[in-house]
Amino acid sequence: MIWDWHFAGKILPDLLRGLVVTIEATLLGYVVALVLGLVWAILRRSPSRVVNQTVRWVVEFIRSTPLLVQLFFLFFALPSTGVQFSALVTGIIGLGLHYSSYTSEVYRAGIADVPVGQWEATTALNLPRRRVWFGVILPQAVRKVIPTLANYLIAMFKDSPLLLAITVPEMLHSAYDVGARSLRFLEPMTIVGVLFVIVSVLSSLLLRRLEFRYGNN
Amino acid sequence: MTSRRDFLRNAAVLAGAVPLAAACSTTDPNKERTGGGTLAKAKQQGYIQVGFANESPYGFTDKSGKLTGEAPELARVVFKELGIKDVRGVQVDFGGLIGGLQARRFDTIAAGMFITPERCAQVAFADPDYVATTAFMVPKGNPKGIKRFEDAAKQNIKVGVLTGAVEDGYATKLGVKKSNIKTFADQPSAYEGLKAGRIDAIALTRISLADTLSKHQGAPYELTEAFVPQIDGKEQFGAGAFAFRKADNDLISAFNGKLAELKQTNRLLPIIQPFGFSKAELPGSHTAAELCKG
Amino acid sequence: MSDVLSSYPLLLRGAWVTIQLTLYGSALALVLAFVFGLIGVARSALLRALGRIYVEFFRGTATLVLMYWFFYALPLVGARFAPMFAAVLALGLNVGAYGAEVVRGAVKAVPKAQYEATVALNMRPSQRLRRVLLPQAVALMLPPFGNLLIELMKGSAVVSLISIADLMLRAQQLRQSTGQTTSVFLVILVMYFVIAQVLQLLVRYLERRADIMLGRRPGRAARPPLETLGVAK
Asked: Model's pTM, two decimal places?
């Protein structure tokens, strides 16, 4: 028989260990992307041309170049500047940085969608800048774009296998190791493939419910 | 006009079908797992595929993209005399070499891989084609006077090694504190680490270090004298060899036969010398079997 | 740095492989997108369900996982793909699934009135599609297709992990043979950026053409010749 169920059962713990790393990297990378994206979006509204054009081109550059190249760049070139992070942390920074270029566009669209009246009201009420952003504008802007932002979490999950290139022991890496050790690639690779599809499909179903709740208000 | 469109469409379909036919082939699932028959297949198709890890000077591509290095050049000579004219390289990262071999992405590993008992459990090595001595790369003048691992341990020196490389084990077993051992992904990264002052020395084979130094002419670094680490009274020889799938016995014996011939007729050294290998690195009469025992 | 720049032929060869992957991958993705997108608006519920399965499955896979599966697992079930074939297949299947959603959405977004008009004019379904619905849908599809094209180009970098000599792999080789890290990566980042911007320009040009074709934006042909306006020449 080509498929060995017994073997598949035996290797499942190894693969699940890899899944834990995958989830770790994805969630932490997502947090970085959410925060950094917001920073970019706010900086883009800065009145200083230098600031907002620099941010614009930096974000465009990151968005237009492959994540894999950025990961390698961070992994190999960063240490020579004095900072050295573990492979996992480098991967999280890489994912977060790359996806922040997408989330910043999403935030910008959300902020632009906030009715002008809201801005005018904050001026009329003489609210300090921090209140303007955190109390009035952002809650409205972000609420509208929650579904789109959630979409990027799923996308990031599917990009997480790239981390194996910088030696992070995530799920695909574990599958490869198992296969290399035992000469049986079929079971680990198929299981990992199926796991990815299951997680993605479940997440997009959840996402559709989110869209329902937040999107059409 | 419709006839021209039809013609174009038919032409496109046909044109697509031809490369498609070449792009897929059938395999025998059982044979995939057990292997064998590689020598005959390579002779018949006129080429053999070798895996390399893009590591200078063992197996790498030069600036024009051509596969070269100690192992590939040796492979070219050996396989040509076995009747296989062409050697084609498949590049994978070092950690993917054994897996790639098992998955039949290539038929031998030409990366100067060290024979270790752990690796012997998974693949079959040919007899070694070189032995490696260890050395340190230090700032010019060797300010801390490091000669062997024991010196590094005594003086609390930060040593750089490559991930998964044997020097990591040597350092730990000879007393260097784990917190003083910094691992790097590859040689260029280790060099950057030394330049940035995050380590005081790089511990690697003399050959690799000499090659790294040759790329940075005029940089203020030098190599210490090569030595063989002694752990528990045993000399740790690093011997590099070609790795094959265990089922390819005929290929391995043919390879070993040719290699022995090259050694006996003194033809091995001229092949590997251009890559920085000297007489000190010639493998002598070590066999894979004895090195697999550890 | 000069070492790196003088090795530009090697990098150009890598860039050419990247461009080829992008071209073939997007050709396959385009075909799959139309096939499965149109299946998604078919009348048969069974067909629609089958289309849905393809789309959900391949949208849910990661391209790299698919490539690894083709590479390592497929030989163990009886077939082996050449590396380029496996890469183009993986890229095309994945992006094609996203494209199918775009096609489906665009066809559904064409105003219902257009569809009703074709029924009133007694057009056959194939005529309806070809002459009325698709041309309008295509204009809607172009911006998201443009994005997908660039995503595909970026996604092509993972082929270096299955040893295809694209720009990313050539960069690694160059890094080894020259010892330069930062300069090599900076150079290829710029090269990828340039390729992405060129693709952007191409897509924007196609968008303009589509708009002109639909009469949404006056092109050169739409402006009446000066003589008829009574303007002396």
From this structure: 0.83
